[in-house]
Amino acid sequence: MNSVQQAGSTPTSGSMLLGVIGDPIIHSKSPVMHNAALKALGIPGSYVPLHIKPEGLEGAIQAVRSLGFRGINVTIPHKVEVMKYLDHIDEGAARVGAVNTIVNNNGVLTGYNTDGIGYVRSLKEEACPVLNGKKIVVLGAGGAARGIIHALTAEHPDQISVVNRTASKAIELAQEWGALADIQGFSEAEAKEVVASADVLINTTSVGMHPNIADLPVPKEWIPEGIVVSDLIYNPLETALLHTSSDKGCIIHGGLGMFVNQGAYALEYWTGLAAPVEIMKEAVLHSFKI
Ligand code: NAP
């Protein structure tokens, strides 16, 4: 038995089939990252981008079984909808309410969410080793925010404050997970005061993402000097928020590490092997240059 089969995969050809489904999918960096990882691990196989429209989602998930894919990633807009076509949902993914990774064990599909744990691994490794006792301010309450806030609660921060343009979403999220940590939701009108208390400020909104790269999610003057500032956006690699925060003596952390680590966790679920994280990161960085 080779390492691919030991990991519980279904292919009969001995080659590992992986992919990502989304709409659109053409700009995804996942194929370049995972194909570099498969090569580095010496696993024969391929990771393919699959453009799946919402009306084709159920059929695509059935095809994962019938074509013997070992696993797939799931991206916008399918992360929530896909859950109803799976056999099992991991507890964390169920709480977050979204799946970004599916593992196929002999036709039985299990959904996981590696976004949040990937983010926290990256934040701790690159910018803030200890989150315990910290005051964390999260800008945004969308899908990505849910994943990372859920993972942050496991780090025992002193407090998590969520600020969102649509305040009701932040307040509801805080109520939903109030038993996991001290979480409070706020409107944008309250943001200035909330941001002033941050040890760690995390932007999970799409403000500052390509092509609107000059936009800031909060004014420069609000950012406390010397704190940790993190942005989930990785296009551009250094957002205006990070650039501005660096000028104020902050420790900055971009979204590339989250992207690489969510992929690393997914690969570890599929192969049972430690992911070659540096090679994956280099592959993504290289693809930005060409
Ligand atoms: P989403 O579910 O659509 O949520 C978007 C969030 O941004 C919401 O909280 C929304 O507020 C807020 N927002 C959007 N435009 C805004 C504006 N002009 N002013 C203030 N708030 C605004 O999207 P998502 O999936 O969470 O993704 C959010 C960001 O994270 C994107 O930039 C994405 O690229 C990034 N991301 C990165 C990774 C990674 O691996 N690094 C992974 C996932 C996502 P409302 O609720 O009021 O609409």
Write structural notes for this entry.
It is a single chain. The chain is 37% helix and 19% strand. The protein has 290 residues and is an alpha/beta fold. It folds into two domains: 16-113 and 260-289, Leucine Dehydrogenase, chain A, domain 1 (Rossmann fold, 3-Layer(aba) Sandwich), CATH 3.40.50; 116-256, 3-Layer(aba) Sandwich (Rossmann fold). It has a six-stranded mixed sheet with strand order 2-1-3-5-6-4, sandwiched between helices. Strands 9-8-7-10-11-12 form a six-stranded parallel sheet, sandwiched between helices. α10 (256-271) packs across α11 (277-289). It is globular. The relative contact order is 0.14. The structure holds NADP nicotinamide-adenine-dinucleotide phosphate (NAP). Residues 115, 140-145, 164-166, 169, 204-207, 209, 232-234, 255, 258-259, 262 line the site of NADP nicotinamide-adenine-dinucleotide phosphate.
Strand and helix map with partners:
Elements: H1 3-6, E1 16-22, H2 30-41, E2 45-51, H3 57-66, E3 71-74, E4 88-89, H4 91-96, E5 101-105, E6 108-112, H5 115-126, E7 135-139, H6 143-153, E8 159-163, H7 167-176, E9 183-186, H8 191-196, E10 200-203, E11 228-231, H9 240-247, E12 251-253, H10 256-271, H11 277-289
Parallel strand pairs: 1-2, 1-3, 4-6, 7-8, 7-10, 8-9, 10-11, 11-12
Antiparallel strand pairs: 3-5, 5-6
Residues 115, 140-145, 164-166, 169, 204-207, 209, 232-234, 255, 258-259, 262 line the site of NADP nicotinamide-adenine-dinucleotide phosphate (NAP).
